[in-house]
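User: Just a sanity check before I run the rest of the batch. Below are the structure tokens for the first item. I only need the designed sequence back.
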């Protein structure tokens, strides 16, 4: 019971910490969706070529709010797969605040962020280029309107007095409740996933998990990548703390953080549903692990 209570409290705290970022991200999406100048669809169509670059910088925002939001948007096919990978690879979850709290590792943090942006942009564009090369005969990529149905039926989801203008747009005052609804929806999935992972961590113990790592840097990289795939901030905390205490090399920590997308993977499997989509999700997880491991190996050659 004590393990469950501790895991429950930690899950609640982790969810509350990421909620503000989720809300701000969805508020931006809702604002662009309500825009009379063309909304989020035009914005994405104009910026899709810059998607991986934009995603790389968004992913660097502490916590995993943007990885969750972008996984949701990918399920709506509003962003490219390369953009999704860029966000996932750039996401560091709790690594940034932990390293900031240790001033002697500020240089390492700056190197970490710089390398993450570089690898996120590289792999993001690589994925889009490869997909475009093999799918030239596919229909032209057109971003779907984000939150289109929700905007037409806001009153079905929120207890607000929504009204429409003559052109069918909801009034701008509804974007706050609209963003809140989506943020709470995603936060629920985050809470459930975090609670589940926390119970495992509390039951097994960090010492037992630490013993999995050996002295070989390449084994560390491969194992850290697996740890990074755990959809919870505990994985990033574990990897950073292990590095700070000399348990693993920088390249191993880097591989794990590149493979880690926070709870973004949970949202991906939750929102991107269907038999075909399940195979896509599994392929994304496999590629994310591969990209993280490759990044770690490359970094190990010079740092």
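Assistant: Here's the designed sequence for the first item:
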């Amino acid at each position: 019971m004590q393990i469950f209570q501790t895991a429950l409290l930690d899950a609640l705290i982790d969810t509350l910490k990421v909620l503000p970022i989720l809300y701000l991200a969805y508020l931006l999406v809702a604002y662009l969706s309500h825009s009379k100048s063309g909304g989020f669809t035009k914005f994405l169509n104009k910026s899709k070529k810059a998607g991986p670059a934009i995603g790389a910088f968004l992913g660097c925002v502490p916590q995993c709010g943007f990885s969750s939001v972008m996984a949701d948007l990918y399920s709506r096919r509003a962003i490219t797969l390369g953009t999704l990978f860029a966000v996932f690879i750039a996401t560091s979850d709790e690594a940034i605040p932990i390293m900031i709290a240790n001033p002697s590792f500020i240089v390492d943090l700056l190197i970490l962020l710089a390398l993450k942006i570089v690898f996120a942009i590289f792999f993001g564009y690589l994925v889009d280029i490869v997909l475009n090369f093999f799918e030239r005969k596919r229909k032209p990529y057109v971003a779907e309107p984000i939150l289109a149905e929700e905007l037409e039926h806001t009153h079905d989801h929120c207890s607000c007095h929504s009204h429409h203008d003559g052109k069918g747009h909801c009034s701008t005052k509804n974007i706050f409740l609209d963003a809140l609804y989506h943020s709470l929806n995603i936060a629920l999935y985050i809470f459930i996933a975090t609670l589940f992972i926390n119970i495992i961590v509390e039951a097994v113990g960090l010492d037992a998990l630490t013993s999995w790592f050996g002295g070989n840097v390449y084994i560390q990289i491969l194992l850290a990548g697996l740890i990074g795939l755990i959809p919870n901030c505990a994985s990033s905390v574990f990897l950073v703390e292990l590095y700070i205490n000399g348990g693993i090399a920088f390249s191993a920590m880097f591989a794990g953080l590149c493979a880690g997308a926070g709870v973004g993977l949970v949202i991906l499997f939750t929102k991107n549903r269907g038999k075909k989509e399940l195979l896509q999700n599994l392929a994304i997880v496999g590629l994310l692990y591969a990209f993280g491991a490759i990044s770690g190996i490359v970094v190990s050659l010079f740092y």
